[in-house]
Amino acid sequence: MALVVIGGVAAGLSAAARARRRDAALEIVVLEKGTVISYGACSLPYFVEGRIREAGQLMVYSPEYFRKERRIDVRTGAQVVSISHPRRDVTLASGARVHYDRLVLATGARCDTSGIAGAGQPHVFTLHTVDDAVRLRRFLEEKRPRRAVVIGGGYIGVEAADALRRSGLRVTVLERSANVLRREDARFTEAVRIQLEEHGVELRCGVEVKAIEGGRVADVACDVVVVSAGFKPNVELAAEAGIAVGPTGAIRTDDRMETSLRGIYAAGDCAEVTHLVTGRPAYIPLGTTANKTGRVAGANAAGGRERFPGIVGTSIVGIFGMGFATTGLSVAQARAEGFRPVAARIQAKTRPAWFGGGNTTVELVADGATRRLVGGSVIGEEGAAGRIDVIAAALHSRLRVEDFEQLDLAYSPPFSPAWDPLLIAAQQLMKEL
To answer: Where are the alpha helices (DSSP H) in 304-413?
Structure first.
């Protein structure tokens, strides 16, 4: 049997590797349109900044590794232009056809700049691939710009702003919505604004950019522009083949990551998954989800019966040393989903004061009708990742606030206070309920 995987980054290679472990005799071909595979997209801003010195450090594995160690035929520069499921083959831009019995779509997503006039100018960049990062860093080194505009206040946008500011540029972030980091939460956004502005980055929300006019964007003067907005799943290839696209605009899949055409699976940034809090389809493209859905798609394409239950939308981003982490729904998002949200937000020490503990802010959101936790956020210089992971685990387990309040969390002065900030927030939320 022949398995073809379209896409050679996180989801695609996870699918191929998992399929190989499942079936040693399977013929596996990975078709990647670019020249680079298996790179850490989340590390691109750190390469731009210079913290990662060489572009090669971004790449985890080479095509040769997969061919030799995994017996997986990885082909770069192989752009698929059409899928014929009745014939069970895909056609490449070269005109060649590749047969498959099972197919995994891991076509990813893109930063769509088509709605911004002037986005093709030489001082305008996206930050989605290794080539993007190399071009931007080369521009910074050669042209020595002094003023930057970042369009988009999502994860990559604020990380790009951090990297550019650390490189000595004056930076302005322009975000179309009223909030940043995909979190509909005014207080969370204000905390991000304060952190950015304390380090010399201006944040302007409610600004829709329709054009880049030379050295100006929305009346902001600049020498370089990074577009990190208009993120869209690459679904055109699938849609043209008759594969259903879901309500989020990404490829519709079931819990086995199978699409509407039997024998074709989808994973990663091109596919939607189930949100475990709302029970509805969601599109929250993250590397963690890409790897997990890729594994499930690959296993099932090789004859397995694995399932991917869904996500709760957990993320964390570092902004000048401060962690901003979220999971589940904010109050506004919970209300829009039909819940009766009740929230508590507290500030507490991450360790005893005499041990030099810093402050952390924790918010917990519950449904007033069921007392079930539906979301949370953590802001702090230390421990934000661990604490948001605890909240995420609670959402996966559908814990009620009174159960969360009794969690047996570790205590030792070098690491945490006797009452962890999470438990203090839960106590406050119980009072609110």
So the answer is: 331-336, 384-396, 401-404
Return the DSSP state at 413. T
d(CA 265, CA 281): 16
Of 106, 102, 94, 88, nearest in space to 241 by CA: 88
DSSP 174: E
The helix (H) or strand (E) run that includes residue 430 is helix 421-432
Q: Where do you find CATH 3.50.50.60 in the chain?
A: 2-34+77-108+232-301, 124-229, 315-432
Q: What is the pLDDT of residue 361?
A: 98
Q: Which of 42, 205, 222, 270 is catalytic?
A: 42
Give the pLDDT confidence score for residue 92 in this predicted structure: 98
42 is catalytic: yes
What are the DSSP E strand ranges found in 289-415? 315-319, 322-328, 341-349, 359-367, 373-380
Determine the Cα–Cα distance for residues 154 and 182; give it in Å rounded to an integer: 6
Q: What is the pLDDT of residue 40?
A: 80
Q: What is the pLDDT of residue 185?
A: 97
Residue 42: its pLDDT value, please? 87
pLDDT digits (tens, 9 = 90+) for 256-295: 999 999 999 999 999 999 999 999 999 999 999 999 999 9
Distance CA 201, CA 164 (A): 10
- How many alpha carbons fall within 13 Å on the CB side of residue 273? 29
SS3 content of the chain, % helix, strand, coil (to 5): 30, 30, 40
What SS3 class is residue 153?
coil
Angstrom distance (rounded) from CA 157 to CA 306: 35
**In angstroms, rounded to a whole number, what is the distance separating the alpha carbons of residues 171 and 62?**
35
Query: What stretches in the chain show pLDDT beneath 70?
Result: none
CATH ID of 2-34+77-108+232-301, from 3.50.50.60, 3.40.800.20, 3.20.20.220, 3.40.50.10150: 3.50.50.60
354 residue type, one letter? W
